[in-house]
Amino acid sequence: MRLKFAWLVTLALAANASAAGRLIVEHAWIRSAPPGAAMLAGYAVLKNAGDASLIVTGASSADFGDVSLHESFSENGVERMRPLGDITIAPGSNVAFAPGGKHFMLMDGKHELHAGDTVKIHISTKSGGGADGEFAMRDTAP
Ligand SMILES: [Cu+2]
């Protein structure tokens, strides 16, 4: 009986060791703005296609000096935004970054971007790896 229990523990540990989150970036776009805009906002759906939770910790891009995860909210009728902490995505779930809510705040642009351009943004996760998203510059939401 004891031996059987030891086997079960071993199997459980082995299954746990192979479980991993897998980040997929979908429907990624950035709202284009007139040249010289101080900041741009990007949107996407982050999906966890793996079998363990994922923790998104941040983002970066060669096209911007600073990329941060933000959330818009309304306070006394005034639209404001704040930085987001780590975002946990359960296996099989997704988190939407959409106008009026979560967004990628893109600052210190390295060059002019126009509708039709594509921007690569790397999204990092706590377990390492993360994923690259191809964000399409658009005048309107897709
Ligand atoms: Cu923002």
Strand content: over 45%
Q: Order of SSEs, N→C? A: HEEEEEEEEEE
> Which class of secondary structure composition applies to the elements?
mainly beta
CATH superfamily placement: PCu(A)C copper chaperone
Mean pLDDT: 91
* Coarse shape: elongated
- The first-to-last residue Cα distance is 59 Å
Mind summarizing the main beta sheet? 10 strands, mixed
User: Which percent range fits the helix content?
Assistant: 10-25%
Q: Your description of this structure?
A:
The chain has one domain (20-138): PCu(A)C copper chaperone (Immunoglobulin-like), CATH 2.60.40.1890. Helix content is 12%, strand content 53%. It is built from one helix and ten strands. It has one helix at 2-18, and strands at 23-31, 39-48, 54-60, 64-75, 78-83, 87-89, 94-97, 102-109, 118-125, 131-138. Strands 1, 2, 3, 4, 5, 6, 7, 8, 9 and 10 form a ten-stranded mixed sheet that branches. Strand 4 and strand 5 (78-83) form a beta hairpin. The longest helix is centred in the first third of the chain and has 17 residues, at 2-18. It is elongated and about 70 Å long. The mean pLDDT is 91. The site of copper (II) ion (CU) has 4 residues, from strand 8.
Quick synopsis:
The chain contains 1 helix and 10 strands. It has 142 residues and is mostly beta strands.
